Sequence to fold (348 residues):
Amino acid sequence: MNQQNQPLELLLAHGEGEIGRVLVSGFPHIPGSTPAERLEWLNSNNTPLKRFLSLEPRGYAQMSTNIIAPPLNSDADAAFFVMQGERVYAMSGSNTICVATALLEAGHIKIQEGETKLLLETAVGIIPVTANTKNGKCLSVKLGVNGAFAHTLDLPLDVSGLGAVNVDIAFGGVFFVIVNARDLGIKLSPQTAREITAAAKPVLHAAREAVQPEHPEIKSIRGVAYALFTDTLADGALLNANVMPPGRLDRSPCGTGTAARLACAAARGELKAGDSLAAASVIGSRIRVECLEVSREEHPRVRLEITGRGRYYGRQTLFPPQPRNDDSPPEEFVLSDTWGEDLDSLAS
Fold:
């Protein structure tokens, strides 16, 4: 399972409601000369350990596990990769908040009173982080998001069960298909979470059939990952409901989804440097977003700072699996009541 057959040590954290466990020891060496090569290796190898960590009974649908690794860049404090049920992803805003908060409060990175700066290495580059700290606690985390861009605007899709739907495809750390929830007559709320995830499945399928985006510089980042349903609150805050395969709702406002949504706004001329706004989730948690720069390229890229709150709330030790007897319970399993119907897509 792991090279030394040692226990796996995890820090427990959430970022604005979205759980992002932080695996600090027990994971084997990740080969690769670049973070992108490491990401590619994680998605092509080591399936047993991914299943062990991600699927029930040790994992569950509403969470990510962040794999901490020694950084390749000597300036970085740590590297991390975002592991979910069906694959490992390059970047996540809420998970960046979880990683920074947990590593600082647990003492893996020295915490400074007042403000602590650190650099986190990901497959999309180095993420600069500034933590607001007091009495050994991380009160909030500000992270930089560079290079979000719109891929395709107003793409018409023929969505099974929903008909004609216009969507945007954009990159904010992963690729999103973005759809206005009001166009589908869907209200974004905790009570409609099942309706949102049910609608997202055919939207995501149609988007993946229609377009196969690839990051222009990082070839291992390709394909539409998530479906982001959007609305706007009465106070002007962006309302986001991000649905992740095989069909569950992000509890946070989704930092990477917010970046992708704002990249589309920039491409339409609706966002400029100096703009400040809030983004909210269906549970009411919020992040603050500052637009630092909109490039003047043909397809504008945006540079943002996102501020949110994390909570480090515990530790977990997972023991490697023991040899199975015929009547022993399975080491990994999933059920469609929580994971959705596409179970064979998980941890492959």
